[in-house]
Design goal:
63% of the residues lie in helices and 0% in strands.
């Protein structure tokens, strides 16, 4: 439950930062910016035409959002799932005479 909450909060934080970055650098309708940000982070590939209105900085932000959306959840899940488990057992070791 805690891992799912962390991944969801990281996704919402990413959406907030991408949306704010686009709103601060572009002069596009806020609803269109939000749609483009959600589409980029979700790696959906949909657009309502606002991507064509972006300048170079806006396109870089969208590309970074696409990369974060593709790599972010997978690496975050791998990071959270890779806890080292301490075990109290070990394999037996013995030299065996052959021949």
């Amino acid at each position: 439950m805690q891992r799912a909450a962390v991944i969801a909060l990281m996704g919402l934080a990413s959406l907030f930062f991408v949306t704010m970055a686009l709103l601060l650098t572009q002069s596009i309708d806020p609803v269109a910016v939000l749609f483009e940000a959600v589409s980029a982070l979700g790696t959906v590939g949909l657009s309502i035409g606002a991507t064509g209105k972006l300048d170079g900085i806006g396109k870089i932000i969208i590309m970074a959002a696409m990369f974060i959306g593709r790599v972010g959840p997978v690496s975050m899940f791998a990071f959270l799932a890779s806890r080292s488990h301490v075990t109290d057992w070990r394999f037996p070791r013995e030299e065996i005479d052959v021949g």
